[in-house]
Structure to design on (299 residues):
């Protein structure tokens, strides 16, 4: 097992598949921020007053609130589970995501996530390269435990052809 | 109460992000993976440049759905990204109502009708992303 430049853990697929079913400890993300909501809505030209006036987060930004600061004092940056599973592919591209919402996220909320490794595909060849599709499930709540969403994500771990 | 018919096409929308717009969107969603914010790095891993991330694409899909159904709430959404989206592309989002069912109500949304929308983000004739959005309309 080794770690590439951007902290993607690489290794043989057998090591990765041995971790199917593994779950992470809960981790919290950044505070839900009005400024980031407006910045993102601006890039897709979404003028919905819920986001500009009422303090709601766009549903599509859910994972924003689970991201981590690139640097903060006395802090080790959290990593997405699918990048920490040993696999041959040292590059990543997200391939798909399905989200079921249970509640609305609002400015000031703080979210928490637990990720579980669901499956790793056989080797696939795509225009980007050769690799494996890694499926993870994320159970997302507020830090008080109230449910927000359930996410199934598919990440492609590849090496250029 | 507004209702929508199965098979009804919803108004399309278009977006023409440049590379800076792609990068700003990715940073706005706090996504600092190098391929999303560094065109040189993106090229080194097989891309043409920095590309639009999942969250921004979902936000574009949500905009499409809620502009057609402004009283609605997104109950679920999903996407499959088939081809990357780069700056300089002219994106067109199109979609059709493909299903409806009564919705009893939840913490997310009151009772109403849940509509399924199948949509695509296209560049010309090419489908970059296929998606589904479920919207509860009171």
């Amino acid at each position: 097992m080794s770690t590439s430049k951007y902290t993607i853990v690489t290794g043989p697929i057998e090591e990765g598949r041995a971790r199917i079913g593994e779950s992470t400890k809960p981790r919290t993300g950044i505070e839900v921020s009005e400024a980031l909501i407006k910045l993102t809505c601006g890039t897709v030209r979404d003028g919905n007053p819920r986001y500009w006036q009422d303090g709601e987060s766009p549903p599509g930004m859910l994972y924003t609130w689970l991201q981590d600061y690139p640097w903060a004092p006395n802090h080790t940056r959290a990593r997405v589970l699918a990048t920490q599973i040993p696999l041959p592919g040292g590059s990543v591209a997200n391939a798909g995501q399905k989200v079921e919402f249970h509640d609305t996220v609002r400015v000031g909320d703080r979210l928490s996530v637990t990720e579980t490794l669901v499956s790793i595909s056989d080797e696939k060849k795509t225009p980007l390269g050769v690799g494996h599709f890694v499926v993870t499930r994320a159970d997302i709540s507020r830090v008080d435990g109230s449910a927000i969403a359930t996410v199934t994500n598919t990440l492609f771990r590849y090496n250029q052809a | 109460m507004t209702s929508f018919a199965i098979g009804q096409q919803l108004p399309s929308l278009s977006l023409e992000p440049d590379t800076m717009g792609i990068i700003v969107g990715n940073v706005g969603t706090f996504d600092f993976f190098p391929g999303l914010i560094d065109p040189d790095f993106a090229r080194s891993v097989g891309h043409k440049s920095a590309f639009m991330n999942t969250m921004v694409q979902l936000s574009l899909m949500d905009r499409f759905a809620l502009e057609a159904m402004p009283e609605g709430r997104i109950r679920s959404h999903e996407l499959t990204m088939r081809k990357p989206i780069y700056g300089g592309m002219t994106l067109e989002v199109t979609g059709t109502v493909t299903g409806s069912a009564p919705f009893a109500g939840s913490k997310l949304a009151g009772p109403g009708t849940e509509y399924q929308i199948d949509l695509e983000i296209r560049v010309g004739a090419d489908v970059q992303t296929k998606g589904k959005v479920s919207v509860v309309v009171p």
In short: The radius of gyration of chain B is 16 Å.
